[in-house]
Amino acid sequence: MAVKFAMHEVKVTLKNRNRLKQFIEELFAREGQELEDIQYVFCSDEYLLGINQQFLQHDTYTDIVTFELSPTPEVTMGEVYISIDRVAENANNYSVSFDHELHRVIFHGALHLCGFKDKSKKEEEKMRSKENEYLYLYFEA
């Protein structure tokens, strides 16, 4: 299992990086999904917009784009792109710390790779509930 973090055109400080990596591995284990490899790429709005346009044909800014790369559904290999610009703006809009919002988005990407969706209202409610569960476990438990 490998959890990796990379930065493209941005700089972000991840507190307790090793603890976070271990927690992400635990998230996958709790969800019953085998994790082989996940790469988080922290980037700018413009870079993620280009990815959104090129691969998803969406011409909008977003905080996260997740790609499942595994040839088999039993094992997860994925890339998660996170816009630091969006995370900062969303943290401000929702009156939460940047660190809290960053971790919410990190867990959101992992949950997508575990099979959670957020297209319908019901799916979105389940995703938010899972995000909150993992935020609590990471920060409070």
Give the topology, please.
Blueprint: E1 2-7, H1 17-30, E2 34-43, H2 45-56, E3 64-68, E4 75-83, H3 84-93, H4 98-113, H5 121-139
Parallel strand pairs: 1-2, 2-4
Antiparallel strand pairs: 3-4
Helix pairs in contact: 3-4, 4-5
Short description:
This protein has a single domain (2-139), classed as Collagenase (Catalytic Domain) (3-Layer(aba) Sandwich). It is built from five helices and four strands.
Brief descriptors of the model:
Collagenase (Catalytic Domain); globular; nuclease; 141 residues; 50% helix; four-stranded mixed beta sheet; alpha/beta; YbeY; endonuclease; single chain; cytoplasm; metal-binding
Percent helix = 40-55%
- Corresponding CATH architecture: 3-Layer(aba) Sandwich
Strand content: 15-25%
CATH class: Alpha Beta
Structural overview:
By secondary structure, the protein is an alpha/beta fold. The protein has one domain: Metalloproteases ("zincins"), catalytic domain (Collagenase (Catalytic Domain)), CATH 3.40.390. The longest helix has 19 residues. It is built from 5 helices and 4 strands. Strand 3 and strand 4 form a beta hairpin. It is 50% helix and 21% strand.
